[in-house]
Amino acid sequence: MYDTFKTAIATQVSALSGVSAEIVEPAVGVSNNTANGDLTLTVPRLRMKGNPAQIAKTLAEQFQADDMVTGAEAAGPYINFRINRTVLTRSVLQAVHATGPKYGWTNEGAGKRVIVEFSSPNIAKPFHAGHLRSTIIGNFIYKLHKAHGWDAISMNYLGDWGKQYGLLALGFERFGSEEELVADPIKHLFDVYVKVSAAAAEEAERIKAMDAEAAAAAGPTIQDQARAYFKSMEDGDESALALWQRFRTLSIEKYKQIYARLGVHFDVYSGESQVGEGMTRAIQMLTDTGLLIEDKGAKLVDLTEHKLDKALVQKSDGTTLYLTRDIGAAIERYEKYNFDKIIYVVASQQDHHLKQLFKTVELLGLPYADRFEHINYGLVNGMSTRKGTVVFLDDMLHESKEKMHDVMRANEAKYKDVADPDHIADVLGMSAIVIQDMAARRIKNYTFDWGRILNFEGDTGPYLQYAHARLCSLERKSHVKVNPDADVSLLTEEVTRDIINQISLYPDILAASIKSLEPCTVVQYILKLSHSISSAWETIKVRGEADDVAEARLLMYWSARTVIGNALTLLGLEPVEAM
Question: Hey, which of 18, 237, 267, 564 has its CA 20 to 30 A from 519?
């Protein structure tokens, strides 16, 4: 929104200084303190010979004010410029009104395709807090790319293959319940997996205590049987594959319910099991390029000279591993989708694995090897239910919803006016979890704190939702309608100037976010905007004011509400209109 003003400043400063406008314009930024000026030129960035403070003084004195840029004043090595606030305010608020939910969007990604792979839970293991982080961060990155014009594909690459499914099949024979499987497949398969893993561990301890002859006579262990079962799956045994397919199908249906609650949509449900010919081709390519070495029947890629150790790609019994399937998946994805970029949203614990994958793809000489990107994130500490057991996402969302419901019920008068308190409590609970997760840089570990996130007054999800709902209420109760042609010259107060500045910066926030892929950039921005609105609330009123003043202020508040709602949506949250 400041581009027109920056260009005007750069054009005149270039003429006065002889420095190219292409160098001057990037040196002009929005002032940190609007009391000193609206835009600031950092003179040292012009790389002119001489004292920067003296150059600033000379340029400021020579600068000719006009209808766009109304004044210039030197401050040490800087020049502060005053701009026509009415022109800026009108252009900002009319832009928000004209574009609404697409305010700040660009077409810079037009014609380019990105795959964002995220969430990717393991079937038969709990959908836990770590998967939640991948899910909400990945969803943000997916939505952000769409906002910048990319053809974005959201992909869920399920952990649905490997020896653990042999173990799970054996466990289901012993501990499974058809009724419980249908009722809650993810939880039941996890319970079965825990039981059979415990049985395998107990068996291993018993065998350890035996002499060699007795151990041999004991026959195949549970782990041996699991390996054999998985080998039969890889060999195409119809009975083994039918049971596995049933587990997978039921689990995906349950996952879809969870994702629907989170407002997350996947364009593609993929998985390790779906990698077909690409895996065989990957092994052949590794062999042909001389990257594959054998060690006791197993096949490896030696990445030690790249400080990435030796990577196992095939066991001695012929079964594949994660890396093999990931290489095969990369080959198949490029051939199917012809992507310009593929982003893996995976925890920092998998940094080494992803580095091995990317390096192997590079060494294979694949022409798209530079299109891979790993977006990592830290761990969540202290996230547990009241019972302190393994945290399933369903349980966590239910608990957050109930906690928010308790907070809402405490205010009986307001609670009676909420149309669908159960749904609002659910949205607020998710907002509490998501905003705490995204408030800091994603690589940081953080401690989950129920007490802090449920506070309506701190920098929390409920606080942001309250700010949005309060602005919606203001509009509903106003005696005037939102008018894009309101006389915005009446917005003269310092606090309104601050709010307009904040609204004007949203396109820049989106531009910065697509470079960093950090949700915290957006979170911190809307927190700051919400604080500015809160500061104006008691003094910049709409009700009871003359119509022209009320219209100008309502347009400003409506624009702020639109931006907050847009940002919440980008973060994967539903903005609430009453609470």
Answer: 267
